[in-house]
Amino acid sequence: MASVSAEQPVTVPMLTARWLSQSFVHWAYPPEEVEALLPDGLEADLFQGRAWVGLTPFVMDSLKAFGAVPLPGPRFLETNLRTYVRLPSGRDGLWFLSIEVGSPLMLAARVIGAPYHLGDLQAVTEGAVVRYKGLRRGVGPSPSYRLTVRVGDPVAEATEQDVWLTSRWRSVTRQAGVLWETPVEHEPWPLARAAVLDLHETLTAHAGLTPPAGEPVAHFSRGVGPVRLGVTRPVSPS
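The chain above was modelled as a monomer; its predicted structure follows.
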């Protein structure tokens, strides 16, 4: 099961950052629909018999290579469309269906198969209301999203579902026929409940999913940092 704290220390970070003003909006999906989008070697991780897909916009700040060398440019937004997977070893991780990002620096992660796309992204906070929007750059109809959430009460004691949906400590990508994993370490998320006031998105359809059904499960976090991303390595077969 997912754990509230990092599973392993990242002693040699390749990248550090602060992740701020992050919203988590999740929908349940039939497992077979999500598994149809996964590469060989991964299977959908399930909670209460369902696969889950999350839309997670956030602000990236204080980016440093090796935890020490500041990278150029101002803070920027990133928005992930993600799901949860089991590796051949049985460990859990994140699989990104798409990643929208406001900085071209992050496109370097395409070398390990991370599905980064440059986009025009915004986030505006007005009291307890946070408004996000994004449009992928490109020719022709591009996937986009618009999301407004109202931040509610802090989560005093996280439920099993709260932890399962928000706390993951490795991402998985695929490049050149090889699965790669990148460990992540940061403090536990300071979570709050959230209500979705407005949502329109075409990212799920562009990823090959049917439109989300039912009310999403929403959380908000003011952020964590420093987030430490470790050395990417091939996924162990067992």
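The chain has a mean pLDDT of 96.
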